[in-house]
Design a protein that fits this description.
By secondary structure, this protein is an alpha+beta fold. Helices cover about 35% and strands about 20% of the residues. GO terms for molecular function: hydroxyacylglutathione hydrolase activity; metal ion binding.
Length: about 270
């Protein structure tokens, strides 16, 4: 099983899960369908299913799957708040998909746990805007109680070698916040250095693994004394609630403003911006 990471828009990801023997593929969150169709044609892949984690409010991605529905016979599996907590396994060739109901960021948010029969590769989970590398999604349509269940009971119970493919490239700013929460966490420092190097090379930081996330993601470290000390809480749900509020208000360090004489030089045409 191969997962192709496709960067789109400003910081979004969409994915192709490819059954290499048959060249059949499953798309996850294809917010830019024409780009996906180009890749399918170029690589000789046939689309068998489309998995959508959640709805988007941005006009850039409204109706994102419409062209795929018109141009493909692929099965469409969409987020749906009426679905039960977890669904029976779906199967597309040798690729298995377990749909996990994870409401909070949106009321119908789904995550998808994916693995291939008779394959030694680690399984994958596509987490949309529920779990990020070193972070979690905002509680737009849900509660801290829901997100706690999503992170601990649903995603946290998956095999620890599961590869995590999230919906956005937020890793550096998430790690900066993680460092504020746990300034003594060496794993956070190492990961931040690595993520900056990846960014310099214009490379994605996905996937991580669940085992790695438990080492540096504060939203999965709710019982750690350092995280509880930062929040001033002991109850895991209250720790999560405070963490999310602090993250919502967290600002990256501002760039140093240009000196007044430099601004004058720009205005007079003596310097180029």
């Amino acid at each position: 099983m191969k997962v192709k990471v496709i960067s789109i828009l400003e910081d979004n990801y969409m994915y192709l899960v490819i059954e290499e023997d048959t060249k059949r593929a499953i798309a996850v969150d294809p917010a830019v369908p024409h780009r996906l169709l180009e890749i399918l044609r170029r690589e000789g892949l046939s689309l068998t299913a489309v998995l959508t984690t959640h709805h988007h409010c941005s006009s850039e991605v409204q109706g994102e799957n419409d062209p795929l529905e018109k141009s493909s016979a692929a099965s469409m599996v969409k987020n749906n708040k009426s679905l039960p907590f977890s669904l029976p396994r779906l199967q597309f060739g040798s690729i298995n998909v377990r749909c996990l109901f994870t409401p909070c960021h949106t009321s119908g948010h789904m995550c998808y746990f994916v693995w291939e029969d008779d394959c030694a590769d680690a399984p994958a989970v596509f987490t949309g805007d529920t779990l990020f590398v070193a972070g979690c999604g905002k509680f737009f349509e849900g509660t801290a109680e829901q997100m706690h269940r999503n992170l601990t009971e649903v995603l946290g119970s998956l095999p620890k070698d599961t590869k995590v493919f999230c919906g956005h490239e937020y890793t550096i700013k998430n790690l900066k916040f993680a460092l504020k929460v746990e300034p003594g966490n060496e794993k956070v420092k190492q990961m931040l250095s690595w993520a900056r190097a990846r960014d310099d090379d214009d490379k994605p930081t996905v996937p991580s693994t669940l085992s790695e996330e438990f080492e540096y993601n504060p939203f999965l470290r709710l019982s750690e004394e350092s995280v509880q000390t930062f929040t001033g809480k002991r109850d895991p749900i209250e720790v999560l609630r405070v963490l999310r509020k602090e993250k919502d208000n967290f600002k990256k360090p501002k760039e140093r403003a240009a000196a007044p004489h430099a601004l004058l030089a720009l205005e007079w045409g003596l310097l180029r911006p």
